Amino acid sequence: MKSRLTLYHHIDAVVPRVQTVRALSAYPRFLRERRAYERASGFPLSRYDDNPQLTDWIDTTPFDPHYTYQDGWAAREIFQRSPDRHVDVGSRISFVVGLAAFVPVTFIDLRPLQIDLPGLESMRGSILELPYGDGAVPSLSSLHVAEHIGLGRYGDPLDPNGTAKAAQELQRVLARNGSLYFSVPVGRPRTAFNAHRVLDPLWVVDQFDGLRLEGFGGVDDDGAYHADLAPSDFADAHWSCGFYRFTKP
After folding, report:
1. What phi, psi does 237 have (nearest 5°)?
2. Best CA proximity match to 126, nearest among 144, 99, 145, 143
3. CA angle, 59 as apex, 93 and 71 as ends, to 5°?
4. Which one of 22, 30, 63, 132 is separated from 41 by 20 to 30 angstroms, measured CA to CA?
5. Which residues contact 103 (CB under 8 A, 6 or more apart)?
6. Would the pTM of this model clear 0.90, i.e. be above it?
7. pLDDT digits (tens, 9 = 90+) for 195-207
8. CA–CA distance, 232 with 125 (Å, rounded to integer)
């Protein structure tokens, strides 16, 4: 069983099985509806302009629970505190773009975002070497990022201690009385090379030894959001996501 699942992981990296099966099964419907549309319009469709979309015939709008709940959680937390400026390191583009609508945002990533939007600036940088002095950033976030550091996925150097080093660097630049919003996959610890790590939720707290945990919530293995938990609640999880809010005393 394990060997078969291992093989599937490698196949899915190139040809996602579930998506492929769904698309192939939907193709006859695409052809039927194409013919019906031609009859209804009275004009032939150009084969050259065909652009089959075969996986959108579903009953509800899909979403990724980790990223969707995390982005909503962090945006509400930051809005509540209304900093003069917020610094984000490597989080989702949709998150920082939305955040910039109500607070000026500096977005830092190995691959800078080439976009021109009011309230949003982007710069190239590494979570292991942020362009700030000690205690310089009052409001800081890094969401679903640190679990990737040191795995080479984004061209960064291989380093088994990458996540721990990222945590120390975030802690270094956070200002006194500042807030850090941080999320990572949590549960039984393991490394899914080269995608991500799953981290012991209590180990994560230990990495921020100079900060105080002010709040914890997250998404459980079933994709349900919980606003108020303890890190230990996810200690035996398989693929949950912990949302941490730290402050620097």
Report:
1. -70, 165
2. 145
3. 25
4. 22
5. 78, 79, 82, 83, 84, 85, 86, 119, 139
6. yes
7. 999 999 999 999 9
8. 33
